[in-house]
Amino acid sequence: MHYLSDHRGSDYYFITLHKNILISPVASGTWVSASGGVVPDGAVIGGVDSHGAAMFVARARIEDCLVPGKLVANFGFTLIPWFGKEIAINQYEVLIDGPNRWVPCRGKTIPGNAFPGGVEKNGVKLYICRARIQGSLTVGKMHSERGTCYLCYGGAEHSFTEYELLVDDGIC
User: Fold this and answer.
1) Is the pTM for the entire model greater than 0.85?
2) Among 94, 142, 88, 91, residue whose Cα is nearest residue 120
């Protein structure tokens, strides 16, 4: 794990993975392996950063977990919320040709068609959520057992009990 700061003074912990991430199809959409800020064609836009740049739905592996997060191309890595911090990871997966419908949710209310985004090592499902923070509509992870959306912003993890979840109308 490497430590770095960006031009805004935010601190990040940078992790370089040397593991192949396979393309994995889901009900609608496909997770495609990428790195270095690359945004594949067809990437699902999940929000916008405070400077107006598109934010894409991404996820990355950390400590045997698969964690949803955000990708802004000019950052050069994906960012995931992890134990109170904003973690930058160079190797990640981007959701392409997937759903792009978001529904308001609160707490542990999870629609049956919520789009799966990842999993913790104890088997807890993680969904893709988003909320507004500091002028940004930011993508993060929704912890299904806690009913909380966790986003990373400004070097830290932030929690929300009111958020939007990505849903897939193709799932019955």
Assistant:
1) no
2) 142
